[in-house]
């Protein structure tokens, strides 16, 4: 079963949420890191997702024409840390150092 993680951007429909999944990849010709995003519709049986929540989607049999994923795990917006949104294992070492430095300066300001 395919699992993807993303952020809820719309939850106004009944039992349906729109989830934006952001991925980083290296451009084949220019070797530069590129960020791309894609929206998926997912089935949320209990209407427990709110805008801004981070969710894990699991592929399933099609529920409707556009819904081919089901919400399996919800991390509320207030509990999710900014570090969870960035996948550190695909970042370059310099970018990791910059991200840690920014996190340290934010903590010092607070």
From TrEMBL:
Belongs to the universal ribosomal protein uS17 family. GO terms for biological process: translation. CDD domains: Ribosomal_uS17. It comes from the Eukaryota. It is found in: Plastid, Chloroplast. Keywords: Chloroplast, Plastid, Ribonucleoprotein, Ribosomal protein, RNA-binding, rRNA-binding, Transit peptide. This is Small ribosomal subunit protein uS17c. GO terms for molecular function: rRNA binding; structural constituent of ribosome. One of its GO terms (cellular component) is ribosome.
